[in-house]
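Justification of resources, computational component.

The compute hours requested in this renewal are based largely on the per-chain cost of generating structure records like the one below. Each record pairs the submitted sequence with a full structure-token output. That output is archived, and it is also reused by downstream analysis tasks.
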Amino acid sequence: MHSLINKINLYHSIIFFLFSCCVALAVNQFENLIVSPVIFLFLILSIGISHGALDNQKGKKLNQLYNIKNSYFFYIIYSLVGISIIIFWLFFPTVSLVLFLVVASYHFGKEDTEFLVNNKNISNLILYFLKGSLIIIAPLMFHFVETISIFKLLLIQNEKFYLFLSFIEDNNILLYALSISLLSSIYYFLKDLKIINVLIFLDFFSIIVLNYFLTPLFAFTLYFCFLHSFRHSISLITELNENSLKNGVISFIKKAMPLTVLTAILYVVSLYFLSNYYQLNDAILKVIFIGLASLTFPHILLEYLLEKNEK
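The structure output for this chain reads:
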């Protein structure tokens, strides 16, 4: 089954790279093409967040590991962590954003790469972060002003923070950071030479192409939905049914549907509330990124606790 996952991921990386190039070419041909953020929100709510919609199943497993009989205990703690992130963001937006970018970099690097790593050690934590940091570096490097505009919409009003970002942009530090991220991919490739590791470079250049030609939100949505979420979903599907990929997909859809729908409803309600105070596009950006932060932290905490107990 592990070889099947690798085969699927390799083909998927090839297809995603070609898809990224085609989208970039289409956008380049139609310079005035404007895609509504509503479409990005729909993709994130339907495809993007579904890869974390089995957290309730993992929560049951965690309850068993800690001998917790009350099944609602997990949901209460999980929800409290998510709500706490939103509240913390409202009071300390700059700190929250920095923490989110750091954690997201590690999360993206880990889940996009760990199936290639045989030996799990502390050095991988750094390499995961360096590889995943490309998702943050690329939009800053190619669309600095637009990315800063998104940060400002996320309640970041700290001028020192923007002066720091301007400093790293003016001194080509972003280029150095991108080079380090590339070196981490090269390391993964050379560490264990095999065909499957080629996808590391396919993913790298897909992200570069998307961020060079597309707006930050457009590029992030395509990456998040069609690379990151797809790859993690494949691993969940094979866990659900190791003998039949088809049955695994059906089982995944059934199990992921309740939390996906519930999360989508909460997003829409939040968007309706925020649209009374902000323009629709601005409200969508706030809901997407602050909402993802509130989902990412409890999701990563859950994964950490499960991995810790498995060890």
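The mean pLDDT is 91. Residues 79 and 117 are 32 Å apart (CA to CA).
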